[in-house]
């Protein structure tokens, strides 16, 4: 009975979704989710994007962890979640939008700052700080894992939930962390005293895209968003969207 009820509820939502195709698209609000490693660097970009494409549409951007956002897409709370492909759910469709490289961030003048590139295995274990959740890169499994024993000799240690808290700490310490290209470009524009060392391939690129419900009738909106990104991508990324 529960399975039958779930199918009925899903079918009812599909009817409501399909009905939106026949309305004025901009009359229906749009909700997009982004991870904490994306949202701070894309709020202005997506504000400009939606203003250009859908000037009369109400858009809400929600910041949350990938696993939470994927559930919100499934239960129709979000129209789209911007996530890495490796973090996507099998229950949702994934549309690649862009790829971006990963860097090791260190302070200006750090002994590693002159390296042209670095392998994940060469990252100093006792100086490395990472977030408790994944950025969505394959090589993350090769980076030092969170282990208090690695940093036991530190006079001052840090454990943070916010990515920028870690990066601000790195500006005045010998610690290091992983940084996406989007964040690195924003830090450069804001003149943070950081250096960004490219990680060696393979696995150093994140395939980022849109997680949506299968058969979602708002696909034409995603196509227009993808076409805009192809023409005017955020700084630091390579568009991968295909019409």
Describe this structure in words.
With 243 residues, this protein is of the alpha+beta class. The chain is 30% helix and 20% strand. Strands 1, 2, 3, 4, 5, 6, 7 and 8 form an eight-stranded mixed β-sheet that branches. The chain starts with a helix and ends with a strand. 28% of the residues are buried.
Gyration radius from CA atoms, angstroms: 20 Å
Shape assignment: globular
> Main sheet?
8 strands, mixed
Q: Provide the low-confidence segments as ranges.
A: none
SSE order, one letter for each helix or strand: HEHEHEEHEHEEHE
Characteristic terms for this protein:
alpha+beta; 30% helix; 243 residues; globular; 8 strands; eight-stranded mixed β-sheet; 6 helices
How are the secondary structure elements laid out?
Elements lengths: L1 H19 L9 E5 L4 H15 L5 E5 L2 H9 L5 E5 L8 E15 L55 H8 L6 E4 H9 L4 E5 L6 E8 L6 H13 L6 E2 L4
Parallel strand pairs: 1-2, 1-3
Antiparallel strand pairs: 3-7, 4-5, 4-6, 4-7, 4-8
Provide a short characterization of the protein structure.
Helices cover 30% and strands 20% of the residues. It has 243 residues and is an alpha+beta fold.
